[in-house]
Amino acid sequence: MKILLKQNIDRVGRMGEVVDVAGGYARNFLIPRDLAVGVTRGRIKEIEEQQKVLEVKAARQREQVEELAGKMRSKRIVLKARCSATGKLFGSITNRQLAREIAEQTGEEVDRHKIIVDEHIKSVGNHHASIKLHPDVVLDLEFEVEGEGFVGEEPEALPQADAGEVELNADTKADADADQAELNAAEAEPPQQADANQTVLNADLKVNSETPE
């Protein structure tokens, strides 16, 4: 079925173009939503007039889109994201986030579905996104990702002074334990030596008791 497009429609055509589409698609979707009008032999002259009007409208629309692209290029688009101390992002940047930042920083609404962001953006720094603002206008937008909420990836090492203090305390404890062990050994007389000393003492007592006065 031939139709005259009143809007730019992806994978179908541009405003002001006459295209062929499936009859059901035209009658059930495009025409009821005022996105197109049917082209019939009885309406040729009317369709031609509408086509001229739509072509002028399409040209103005393209100019506006090009102005928008220039405005977006002139702005510094910055997104903030949580990252590690080395700049590695926790998660990735999405087209929804970028669309929100563009709206906040330029005042222009952009359909997030027209924004293609590299899904592998995993670090802070400068990155690029492709934005299809118009069938003839595709913007290569540079934006910056800044880190916030820095989190260390590895536990921090003990300060040198603390490490030395730990080592000193360990040496002091070892020396104290060694001294205590020697003291205990010195105070504890071996059982055999104690028995020998007692035998000598008993012998001396016996000799003294048998010696006449």
Account of the 3D structure:
Helix content is 46%, strand content 22%. With 213 residues, it is α+β, with helices and mostly antiparallel strands. It has three domains: 2-67, Ribosomal Protein L9, domain 1; 75-151, Roll (Ribosomal Protein L9, domain 2); 160-207. It is elongated, with a radius of gyration of 45 Å. Residues 154-168, 189-194 and 203-213 have low confidence and may be disordered.
Structure summary:
Helix content is 46%, strand content 22%.
CATH class of the largest domain: Alpha Beta
Strand order of the largest sheet: 4-7-6-5
Q: Can you tell me the overall shape?
A: elongated
Unreliable residue stretches: 154-168, 189-194, 203-213
Taking all residues together, what is the mean pLDDT?
Answer: 77
Number of helices: 5
The CATH homologous superfamily name of the largest domain equals: Ribosomal protein L9, C-terminal domain
Q: What is the CATH architecture annotation of the largest domain?
A: Roll
The CATH topology assignment of the largest domain is Ribosomal Protein L9, domain 2
Which structural class fits the helix and strand makeup? Answer: alpha+beta
Q: How much helicity do the residues have?
A: 40-55%
First and last CA, distance = 152 Å
Q: Can you tell me the number of structural domains? A: 3
Strand content: 15-25%
Number of strands: 7
